């Protein structure tokens, strides 16, 4: 496997057609999965991978759980309040290398005007040429946040001290980024 020491230094842009920023949340007795369809992101890779940076901005209007009514409710003041807070942002604050292809990416996540530190477990999937003459890198990142910490605390109480919607949101990001000339 290619080690991260071989990653080309430079500026990489997320490829939206080959990137998914997804999430999972507990709902009643199952889980709801969704993703965001519109986002942009930049990775600036350095010779020392721990000096690299990541910035991502997500258009919260683009939330997609596969159900139009639920997506409209998620855009409302009960959840994201997109009329006031149209985007969610992430800006890295540090990277720790755990092995040749595993990292912990620390950063500040901002949702609804609230910024909290988070950590993502990142797996480097490789770097290589694409059929169009470009250079691509692939990563997968996973993490978990508390939606209540960001002021997203809408819920419906159920019998036995249960609630309809879980607090913990699991993040799952699979991304390809293209080296900029």
TrEMBL record:
Gene3D superfamilies: Lipid/polyisoprenoid-binding, YceI-like. SMART domains: YceI (SM00867). It comes from the Bacteria. Residues 11-178 form the Lipid/polyisoprenoid-binding YceI-like domain. Belongs to the UPF0312 family. This is YceI family protein. It comes from Aeromicrobium ginsengisoli. The lineage of its organism: Bacteria, Bacillati, Actinomycetota, Actinomycetes, Propionibacteriales.
């Amino acid at each position: 496997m290619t080690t991260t020491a071989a990653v080309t230094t430079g500026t990489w842009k997320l490829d939206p057609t080959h990137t998914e920023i997804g999430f999972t949340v507990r709902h009643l007795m199952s889980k709801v999965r969704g993703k965001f369809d519109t986002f942009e992101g930049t990775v600036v890779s350095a010779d020392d991978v721990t000096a690299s940076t990541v910035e991502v901005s997500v258009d919260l209007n683009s939330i997609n759980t596969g159900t139009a009514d639920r997506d409209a409710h998620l855009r409302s003041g009960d959840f994201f309040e997109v009329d006031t807070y149209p985007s969610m942002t992430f800006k890295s604050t540090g990277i720790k290398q755990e092995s040749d292809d595993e990292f912990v990416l620390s950063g500040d996540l901002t949702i609804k005007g609230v910024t909290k530190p988070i950590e993502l477990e990142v797996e480097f999937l490789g770097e290589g040429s694409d059929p169009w003459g470009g250079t691509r890198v692939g990563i997968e990142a996973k993490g978990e946040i508390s939606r209540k910490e960001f002021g997203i605390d809408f819920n419906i109480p159920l019998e036995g001290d249960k609630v309809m919607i879980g607090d913990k949101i699991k993040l799952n990001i699979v991304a390809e980024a293209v080296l900029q000339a």
